[in-house]
Structures are given as structure tokens and as C-alpha cells.
């Protein structure tokens, strides 16, 4: 029955009680989640494997600028860093994407032409999501029309917390349809969902409504991404894959600022979902501040010494 909802993008209202029963069957053992995270954090990555892991993390980043002061020049600078993270380090991969507001998509698209870097845009009244569905659909279509390859939408957390799960499901499905061929990342804003049970339920709703990725946070609310929350979402993706055969992606965003923490996330993904998910098509970091620490650690692994932070661009 869950596969039926996914394939047809049907409203949960058509069989609301049965769908809720299926979704709510999974209850989260918070202590068990925290213990598993603690065990995974004890894994150690050394030498060549560590360098490869750091480079992989670069390739999985969505470099982001979502500030009221954003300008075309700032977007061009971020795009340049996404394509070539550091001029002096040979063999570095490009970042996965650059994420901007819809009105700056065309500038990013033009700047990134000919590169492998995707253009993502936030939409649906980011970051609060407090607008009508009509406005959200219009904004999504505008961003896609400007050239966005990916849309990062926010769910209506108020509706979710009121128990209006059919509303949340149908809204995601409608935005997915508005995306056309663009990839859809659904932001749960886990810092506002209160419990891991809510995180799991919101993950299931998003996945079965058609999300290509589920994402922890906007980066505007604390706490943002955490390892326990991410593990719960990864387990939802795993179970979704077992039931449907469709791989969906994961994007922890906000609060990931060190290479050490990024490597812990990569270990968690590999152990929970497998190596096939360690690619830009299925895993992203939403944390621009992470880039410079990754670059500093790469230089350290290659040369044995740290470079000053002044050698790395701020954007």
C-alpha cells in the first residue's frame, strides 16, 4: 500500500487512517539511536582513506548563499569556488551544487555554464513556509524557469505539528509536480519537529510524496543537522528503498563546520545505506562553512602542515 501512494502520488486523504497506521508503525528508540551514533563516531579513518574521504566530502557539498545582501557578484564568487575549490590544490573535485534564492538562479546558471556544478534554488516561502500553496507553486515554477536544476522546499511545520499529515503530503506532491524535471529536496526543519518520532514520520511523508532528497534544516533554526536526527532520516530512506526499490537522497544542513564531523557523517551513510549513496546523486552537505576546513585538512594530509585560514576565500 505504501508503494501505491508513492507511485500515484495519491492524497493520503483517500485512505487516511490506513496510511497513518502504516507510517506511524515505526517508533524511534532514542537511546538506541544515540548509542549507534556513539559507536559509529569511534571509527577512525587514516592516511590515504582520510584524504579520499575529504575529497569526497568536497564533491558532496552544496555551497550556499541565502542572505538578504546577496548580489550577482557574490553569487559569481561562490560559483567560482564551487567549480574550483582551491587553485593551488591539484585534483580537487568540484562541489555538487550552488544554492541561491530564485531571483539569482539565472546569474548562477550563466556563471556555471559548461561545468558539472548544479544550480539549486530555495522555494516555497523559504525559510518559514508561511504562504499559500498557490504562491509556493508559482515560486517553484519561476525558479525552474530561470534554470534551477534542483529545488529545496520547506514543509509546513505548523500543519504537520497539528497532525494535518494529508495537507503536508499533498503539498509536497504538488511542488514535486511543479518541479518538472528538476530534482526536489524537502526540508523538514527538524529543529522544530520536537521528537525523533516526528522526524521519522515527516521523512516518510516526504519520501512517499515524491521527494528526491530529504533534508534536515534551512540553517536558520537551531538545532540544525545532528547525527542522531540524520541517522533516523537515513533509516527512513533505507526502509523506503526496501519497500519501493527507489533510492532517495539525504542532505544534512546547518551546523556541520569541521572535516572531522563531515567524515563521521560519511561513515554513517556508508554503514546505514551503503557505498552507493556516497555520491552527489544521493548525498549532500548543506554547509558552506565546511569547505574551508575540508581544504585545510586536505593541505595538511598532502603536505604535513596546516595552511593559514587567510589562504582560503570566505565564500
Short characterization:
The protein is α/β, with parallel strands linked by helices and 315 residues long.
Topology:
Elements: H1 2-8, H2 16-23, H3 30-40, H4 47-59, E1 62-64, H5 72-83, E2 97-100, H6 105-111, E3 118-123, H7 133-145, E4 150-154, H8 157-161, H9 165-179, E5 183-187, H10 196-209, E6 213-215, H11 227-244, E7 249-251, H12 259-272, H13 290-303
Parallel strand pairs: 1-2, 2-3, 3-4, 4-5, 5-6, 6-7
Helix pairs in contact: 3-11, 4-12, 4-13, 7-9, 9-10, 10-11, 11-12
Describe the structure.
- The chain has 315 residues and is of the alpha/beta class.
- The chain has a single domain, classed as Aldolase class I (TIM Barrel, Alpha-Beta Barrel), CATH 3.20.20.70.
- Helix content is 48%, strand content 9%.
- It is built from 13 helices and 7 strands.
- A 7-stranded parallel β-sheet has the order 1-2-3-4-5-6-7.
- The longest helix has 18 residues.
SS class: alpha/beta
Order of helices and strands: HHHHEHEHEHEHHEHEHEHH
Taking all Cα atoms into account, the compactness measure Rg is: 19 Å
The strand order across the widest sheet is 1-2-3-4-5-6-7
**Assembly status:** single chain
Q: Main sheet?
A: 7 strands, parallel
CATH architecture: Alpha-Beta Barrel
Number of helices: 13
Helix content: 40-55%
Distance between the termini: 46 Å
Report the uncertain regions: 1-19
Instruction: Write down the CATH topology.
Output: TIM Barrel
CATH superfamily: Aldolase class I
| Mean pLDDT across all amino acids | 90
Beta fraction of the residues? 5-15%
